[in-house]
Amino acid sequence: MIGTSQRRCKTTWCSWAFVALAVAITLAASSSSAADYKAALLLPGSINDQSWNADGYAGLTKIKELGFETAYTENVDAADHVDAMRDYARRGFNIIIGHSGRFLTAEERVGAEFPNVQFITAAGSAGFGKNVSSIDFNNRHFACLIGYLAAKMSKTGKIGGVYGLEGLPTTIDHVGSFRICAKKARPNIQVTVLYISDMEDAASAKEAAFSLIAAGADVVAGQLNAAQTGLIQAAKEKNVFVTGRSYGQTAISPENVLTNIIEKWPEMYAAAAEDVKAGKLSGAFRVYGLDTPDATGAALGYLPDVPYNKAVPASVIAELDDVKQQIASGAIKIEPTREDARGGR
Predict the structure, then answer these.
(1) Which parts of the chain are beta strand (E)?
(2) Which of 20, 52, 323, 330 has CA atoms 20 to 30 A from the CA of 89?
(3) Is 297 within 8 Å of 140 (Cβ atoms)?
(4) What are phi and psi of 284, to 5 degrees?
């Protein structure tokens, strides 16, 4: 009996040993599978800017939820773009994202060296080869809505915008569309655009906004990174309307912020990450907008599920909804030129 009991104990122990071994193998395989997918993000500024860079980081967080190991580098200077990308590629990252159109040149260069890595430029203007893609929301669509709203909300007949990266294709699209659609809303509206040299310099943006306000602008817009908070602060101090880039900017001055362009980088980056997991690399330029209803790339939002400040009249909202529908259907086509995006009036 004793011998039989010992044999049963050994048999039971063996069964549990096999189960433990199977679980270990499964976990190891799962860990290996997760480690097979790695995504890195390069940012021109800080993830705490409540604007562009924070949106990029939110996109990386979404990719992490898909099972990717993730890493990021903030405040990457132009001189370091190539080396930073090469470093991540050599470390086995499958996706390398440059969260600004300024990264495109470096991605074209490094992408050719690492043909099995998916390089993505946010707000780029073109794809390159088979593995360097650009993704963006349609600046023309959403800047048009901001320009239309600003013109309709102005009492002085003067509005202004503060921007950076003068001459970049996406900047031309954004600033030019802002001006075109403001004129569409009110042909006699005076639109003044100022460019600053640093998208992260809130003090410089604030001074530019003060200059516009002193000249009579009572609505100020912009598309900056950390510097966007300078516009919000200037509007708050001078009690004029302003548009932002995040719900956090609404919180800075809820009475003055009319709406924000909420960019859906998590949605856009997740779609690209799923393609990489499926073994698909892309060299395409993909733009999401009002005419791509499955994924619009952005939306106007004052708060979650609240598109506009209560100060915006229902009649203006109805006009904006009509403009949206016409853009989506192709009835309104916006084709800005460099002249439309000029600085000054």
Answers:
(1) 38-42, 69-73, 95-98, 118-122, 132-137, 158-163, 190-195, 219-223, 241-244, 257-263, 285-288, 298-301
(2) 52
(3) no
(4) -95, 165
- Classify the phi-psi angles of 304: left when phi > 0, otherwise alpha if psi is within -120 to 50, otherwise beta: beta
Task: Give CA–CA dist 287/60, Å, rounded.
Answer: 19
CATH of domain 34-138+265-288: 3.40.50.2300
Residue 248's CB: how many other CB atoms inside 10 A? 16
According to CATH, the topology of domain 139-263+294-329 is Rossmann fold (3.40.50)
Tokens of residue 208, six digits? 């530019």
> Based on the number of CB atoms within 10 Å of its own CB, is 90 exposed (0-12), middle (13-18) or buried (19 or more)?
exposed
Write down the pTM of the prediction: 0.85
Q: Tell me which amino acid residue 300 is.
A: L
Q: How many CB atoms lie within 10 A of CB 212?
A: 26
pLDDT at 13 over 90: no
Pick from 60, 57, 97: nearest CA to 81: 97
In 253-310, alpha helices (H): 265-277
pLDDT, tens digit, 9 for 90 and up, residues 192-231? 999 999 999 999 999 999 999 999 999 999 999 999 999 9
261/223 Cα distance (integer angstroms)? 9
